Amino acid sequence: MLSRIFLFVSYPHESYNSLLWINVSHVSRHWRATALGFPALWSSPPFKTPAWAHEMLKRSKMAPLTIVADLTYMSPKILSVFDDAMKQVDRAAELNLTGDKTMEKYLTDLTKRAPFLRKLCISQFYAGYREVEEKIVLPDNFLDGQAPRLRHLNLNRCQVHWDSTLMQNLTYLRIVEPGDFRPTISQLVDVLKQMPWLETLDLDHALPIVSECTKTLPRPSHVISLPHLSLIRLTSNVLETANVLNHIDFPSTATMRLILHGTKGTGTDFSSLVPTLSKSRTFAGGSSDKALKSAPFKTLSLTSPFQTDIRFSAFTTVNPSTSRVDYAIPALELHLSWRLDSSGTKEQVAQTICRALPLAQLRVLRVFDPDCDFKHMTWVDLFGSLPKLQKIEFSGATKTFAEALGEIKPPAPVDADQGYNLRRKKQTPDSVYFPRLRSLILTGTDFSDFSDVLLDALMVRAECGTEVQALTLSDCSHLYDEDVELLEEVVVEVAWDGHVLDSEMYDSDYDGYSDSLYDDEYGHGIFPFFHFHEDDDWYQPF
Question: Which of 100, 110, 44 is closest to 70 using CA atoms?
Answer without folding.
Answer: 100
